[in-house]
Amino acid sequence: MDTEKVLNYLEELFPEPACELKFNSRFELLVSVILSAQCTDKRVNMVTKELFKKYSTPKDFANLKQEELEKEIKSCGFYHNKAKNIISCSKDILERFNGKVPGNIDDLMTLAGVGKKTANVVYSVGFGGDAIAVDTHVFRVSNRLGVHSKNPLECEKKLEEIIPKDKWSRAHHQLVLFGRYMCKAIKPNCKECELTGICEYYNERK
Ligand code: SF4
């Protein structure tokens, strides 16, 4: 991947990249990111707008019955597992982390339902840490541009090697936005894209 060209173009397109999830605390961010698996940020924001009015702390969620939470988050999909994970994650935060979301990736990954991608998002968005969370958009776009990775973890490692550390979080957001609005899974908008000259996906299909 021509990293410099890609990053410069992403800067032009998305000069102020940011997480599109809406939240008021690190814990709400964590809940939102768990809910966002296989679901759009737009849908998550619709659900959490009401959810966080009623429950917003680890204690609130730890005291919820699974069925109650399932009802609230049903439209996000995979609601059974997501409800289970959010409740046990809340209990973990209360019991092991004094009610506070832990601020490092290793501890975050010990929480129920928190994998590397979720931990990286919470660490970078919630704590200002450097991390590249590889979601479906980042994975697809990176591979189209020539990163050649077989799974998200390999993709993360390769991106970490070619992108300067202080740009990891920014590049993550820009790649997500680029995948969401330009380099879409079906029908990428190649006509408008200025990366056709270096895009392996585009050139293989020409
Ligand atoms: S040329 Fe098309 S496939 Fe390649 S990065 Fe641009 S939008 Fe995506």
Number of strands: 0
Distance between the termini: 18 Å
Helix percent reads: 55-70%
Bound molecules: iron/sulfur cluster
- In terms of quaternary structure, the protein is single chain
Most strands sheet: none
Tally of individual helices: 12
Overall form: elongated
Can you say what the CATH homologous superfamily of the largest domain is? Hypothetical protein, domain 2
Calculate Rg over CA atoms: 18 Å
Give the SSE layout.
Blueprint: H1 3-13, H2 26-35, H3 41-54, H4 58-62, H5 66-73, H6 79-96, H7 105-108, H8 116-127, H9 136-144, H10 152-162, H11 168-181, H12 200-205
Helix pairs in contact: 1-11, 2-8, 5-6, 9-10, 9-11
Bound molecules: iron/sulfur cluster (SF4).
Description:
The model has no long low-confidence stretch (mean pLDDT 96). This protein has twelve helices and no strands. Helix content is 59%, strand content 0%. It folds into two domains: 89 residues, Endonuclease Iii, domain 2 (Orthogonal Bundle), CATH 1.10.1670.10; 102 residues, Endonuclease III, domain 1 (Orthogonal Bundle). Helix 9 crosses helix 10 and helix 9 crosses helix 11. It has 206 residues and is mainly α. The site of iron/sulfur cluster (SF4) has 13 residues, from helix 12.
